Prior knowledge:
Radius of gyration: 15 Å
Subunit structure: Homohexamer.
CATH superfamily: Hut operon regulatory protein HutP
Largest sheet: 4 strands, antiparallel
GO biological process, one term: L-histidine metabolic process
Family: Belongs to the HutP family.
Strand order of the largest sheet: 1-2-3-4
CATH class: Alpha Beta
Number of helices: 4
Mean pLDDT: 92
Protein name: Hut operon positive regulatory protein
CATH architecture: 3-Layer(aba) Sandwich
Function: Antiterminator that binds to cis-acting regulatory sequences on the mRNA in the presence of histidine, thereby suppressing transcription termination and activating the hut operon for histidine utilization.
Oligomer: single chain
Number of strands: 4
Distance between the termini: 17 Å
Low-confidence stretches: none
Amino acid sequence: MSLANEKLLGKIAMLSCLDDSYVQKIEDLGWRFCKGKVGSMESNKVVAAIETAAKKEGVINGSIYRETHALYHAIMEAIYGVTRGHVQLGTVLRTVGLRFIVVRGNPYDQAEEGDWIAVALYGTIGAPVKGLEHEAVGLGINHI
């Protein structure tokens, strides 16, 4: 079992979140993905937007618990990165404006390893006053 260098799920997800031209690599690998944007002062709305997009676009099957659970953990890990480990937004007067991508695929040489899911976030976080934010990134990866 080893990761295939040309199939690094997290790297491909983050690059695709930052630059749309990398999405072609996801398509070439035959992986499933969805992209979107979310802005909120509430972390639950960020989670809901990403989960809804992934279910709607068929990246995960929402009726299978392990798929929803894997996605949830990947989202939370990515949010921890954006919020520097404190998943608090509005309660401490912070807001986010994020681009996201959810990518599902097998990053290993062997098909038997199964699918993994990556959530990449890029955008801004800061006080809810235009111009008082800064850039932030987050990446979460989980097995399905």
